[in-house]
Write a structure and sequence with these properties.
The chain is built from two helices and five strands, in the order βαββαββ. By secondary structure, the chain is an alpha+beta fold. It has a single domain, classed as Alpha-Beta Plaits, CATH 3.30.70.100. It has a five-stranded mixed sheet, with helices on one face. Helix 1 packs antiparallel against helix 2. The radius of gyration is 12 Å and the shape is globular. The termini are far apart.
């Protein structure tokens, strides 16, 4: 089990990035959250099996149709098990 703390920059707000991230995380059985940041980026935490977290993180490198990802920062952290689901934080 692993945890990835991710920051995504580019045109990632107003293109359903959060909702699509949630859908992808739920489909993979990954828990955590995603939110918009005031600087126009998107921040997320993903927890779960390493291969499934990798799958969601790799999806974030492109994002949904309409997104244009210019940079992604991934910080691998210790799995905490604190989440029961994946949610969008407002």
């Amino acid at each position: 089990m692993t945890r990835a703390h991710v920051y995504v920059r580019g045109r990632v707000q107003g293109v359903f990035f959060r909702a699509s991230t949630r859908d992808n995380a739920l489909a993979c059985g990954v828990t955590g959250w995603v939110k918009n940041c005031s600087d126009g980026s998107v921040e997320a935490i993903f927890e779960g099996k390493k291969d499934l977290v990798d799958k969601v993180v790799n999806w974030c490198r492109k994002g949904p149709v309409g997104a244009f990802v210019t940079h992604i920062e991934v910080c691998w952290e210790v799995y905490s098990g604190e989440f029961n689901e994946f949610s969008v934080v407002y």
